[in-house]
Fold this sequence. Notes:
The structure holds two protein chains of two kinds. By secondary structure, chain A is mainly α. Chain A contains six helices and two strands; from the N terminus they run ααββαααα. Chain A has helices at about 15-40, 45, 60-85, 90-110, 120-130, 135-140; strands at about 55, 55-60. A two-stranded antiparallel sheet of chain A has the order 1-2. Chain A is elongated and about 60 Å long. Chain A starts with 13 loop residues before the first helix and ends in an 11-residue tail after the last helix. Chain B is of the alpha+beta class. Chain B contains 16 helices and 17 strands. In chain B, strands 1, 6, 7, 8, 9, 10 and 17 form a seven-stranded mixed β-sheet that branches. In chain B, strands 2, 11, 12, 13 and 16 form a five-stranded mixed β-sheet that branches. Chain B has a three-stranded antiparallel β-sheet with strand order 4-3-5, with no helix packed on it. In chain B, strand 6 (about 170-175) and strand 7 (about 180-190) form a beta hairpin. Classes of the chains: A mainly alpha, B alpha+beta.
Amino acid sequence: MRKRKKSDKKKSPIAVTVIAVAIVVLFLIRLVQVFEPLIRNQIFLNGITGPLFTGWKLTALGGVFLSSAAYLVLSLAGIVVLIGFLRLRRWSWVLLMAWTGVSLIISLVDYFYSRPNYAVMSSNVIIAFALNITEVQRIFGIRSDDGTSL
Amino acid sequence: MAPASDRPTVPLTASDLELLRKFEPVVSYTKGEQFFPIDVEHYINECSLWEHHRDGRDELLVNQGELTLEKLIESRPAEFGSIRYLRFIEPLSLAESAQVLADQLLLRRKLGDYFHAGIGRLARGGILPRLLDGLFSLSFLLRGKVSAATAAAAELDFNAMFAEDRKYTYYGRVTRQNGWTILQYWFFFCFNSWRSGFYGVNDHESDWEMVTVYLYEQDGQLIPEWVAYASHDFKGDDLRRRWDDHEELKIMEQSHPVIFSGAGSHASYFRRGEYQAEVNLPLPGWFSGLVHTWNKLWTETLGQPAINSFHIPFVDFARGDGLRIGPGESQTWSPVLMDESTAWASQYRGLWGLFARDPISGENAPAGPMYNRDGTPRASWYDPLGFAGLDKVPPPPKMLQMLADNCEKVSRRQAELEKLVPEKAGELQARGARLQGMEGNPHLARQFGALEKEINTLSAEVRNMRREVWENLALFQGLTRRLDRMKAGAQNDPRTHIRHLAEPDDSTQVLRFDRAAETWAAVSLSMLLFAIAALIFFAPRYIWAGLGIILILFVVAESFLRGAFVQTVGRITLILAMITTLILFFHFWKWIIVVVLVAMGISLMIQRLRELTG
Lengths: 150, 614
């Protein structure tokens, strides 16, 4: 049998794949969160039919726009992070951890104000714990080989 | 073994005073230090004597100006639970307090000896320790404390007293135990101004500090081997350094150890620098248990570095950039001999300054060199060897003999075992053979049982002896190796006995955006409180969510200034993920259990099937 040539490429652990899948899932959920309220309010059919602000306060429509915009930023950031993450860049680990943190805060606030989204919560939890795996941290240069933080 | 050639020696015939003078230390204080060692007589003459009774009453026994060392030790019966104490500064009225504080400012200006903290202690801890520090400061409203005016008056009185008789005093004691000659140098200060003068933990009237030099005898000479300094947070072995440990112990003029004294606290350090002292908060048992479980999960399961947030960082500044007292310096010592027959030391068991009624004792004055605050004997006095962990260490010349004795003892036992083991092993085999002979004979069941028991006992005995042979072999090798090294004059590492080494903060390690970090440390706690107040006022509906987000923002800002952004973001996200996991488990526990069981089942099935199919 011919000997298989060893690949020089760094082998990524399964957790990296799991994280990448979770980011994609989150991206899709966030996209739904961006478009669902806009469709519900028939923005695409009728355009903006009312004011977004009354004085310093947001109107209901303004609130819809704001939350859609926030979710859009989160989902787009997710894609940027995903690209860096698949290329095993250190900055992408930091950004993804921060992104997951922000996403978890929003999910928790949503949960405590009776708007839970368990799929988002689960995906975030999976990403957070997977990012904390020593092997993953080593690959991204967050932790040294002897286990100390860099 | 020849005496170490680089060590000073003193003839065995030297008097106690000569011995003390030969090894008296050089003390290096921090610029801005307010109090220096003085003689107790001057101090006593300035004090009044009081008795604190169990019912909370304070009784004046001797007026200020009338107290002498003789009057201090006069026999005065006292009830159980009462506390006798001296008072250096009499209670001050509001006007007097304002006056002494103003006079203190004038005195400082006149002396021109200012202290600058530099990177403050607050910038050295995180936001939680800072929050706890705020609570610690507030706790003084409930606890007894020494007022700022008392500290100011003490500084003024000390300077007035010192101007009359400018003499730096130490009390020297020479004692001999287990082959060691022990020199104790006791320093008396009329005030500890660590809190009021140097942002430390406490203030109290009077302060006793002590350092010890341990000598051994060889060829009619006394040679120094160890030096121990009393210090915060350290005890036993950690207090002492070997004479030849030049990295740790500085020696002036060949025989005078150098002490770097903590500003205000007067704690003694071997190296100059700024030491972080930590006050651990007294937590209730159940809470400590929770913290312990959390830490275990955090470090062992999640692989995160351990965090101890329930402490308050304080800095002890032992910079050594101020006055220096000792041989070869501009200021020298006036030694006074002291021992068990020194009446003021042995017969006065009370406190040497104000009893501030502080339940955790930090602000109450200490007792004298021979006693603890509760009047019980002080360990450093009656057991000076045990104090520095030297009770188990023989002097070097004795060490050689003891090692040789140990080697001989082990060899003897080894020879004994070499004879015993084959004997017992043979006996065991004989009994085993007898046991086999009994097999298949039901009428011998009773004897069989008894013999089986005997065999088990004998087998254990033989096993233990064989283990002892191997252990002794290793022990013997260790002992002979040490003996050979000692005979060759080789010394082992001078720090092997130290478990926790007192190390000054790394002066090269600066915070990112130094000034910004310090400013942030000073204002962050107040800003946090303002933000919470604004949240309550403007958005009460979102109080919990807002509080959480504000705290996280503060922690992240802090971590950025400390250069720990990556670790902090990781930790915060992990904590949020754990909270979310709990929520998910609360809602979907049935599903989670089902999924876990199915996954375990599939995994086991795959393993077994793989085993089956080879």
